[in-house]
Please model this.
Amino acid sequence: GAVVSQHPSWVICKSGTSVKIECRSLDFQATTMFWYRQFPKQSLMLMATSNEGSKATYEQGVEKDKFLINHASLTLSTLTVTSAHPEDSSFYICSANRASNQPQHFGDGTRLSIL
Amino acid sequence: AQTVTQSQPEMSVQEAETVTLSCTYDTSESDYYLFWYKQPPSRQMILVIRQEAYKQQNATENRFSVNFQKAAKSFSLKISDSQLGDAAMYFCAYREYGNKLVFGAGTILRVKS
Model:
């Protein structure tokens, strides 16, 4: 069964609103989670590394104020797309490792559509 | 920074036949992990197979096997007895320090019946 849960799976909202996406590790504690963005028929691009109890580490070119990441507990990381615009429409996926020598488990992704 | 290259945007295979997907990577590290992930139309990311760089033996998972050539920095995926359910986008990935994954551009695999 799924070990990483992501919610919601699909969201449509108006331009200018903020959208929160949740990523949960279901049966393990994850000190680190990862957020990716994927455009249609393209690869996954790492946006940021979410660190429990501290600030996220953003990849070059990712706007920190646009994509707010909070990792308040060992099983939950959230990504908030602030003041979303149509160009923010994309597929967002999170992942987490059970342990450093284990492969990453991915959530099922969130399809975000901004009208 | 490490890079992963998948030079085949699309591949086709006849059902029951064998297909090989190519992947090369660039790194200065000696110990690392390599992965193949499958992404079907549902867009779930499914781990197909993984290889630890310090292990010389090629990893195998049922119909899936890899040809890992460390010196050449090559990590190809062979799918034997292809099935319709194998149709998907396949991503090669390198795991660097801090557990971050670097993905290749992906290869779309089509399976013909």
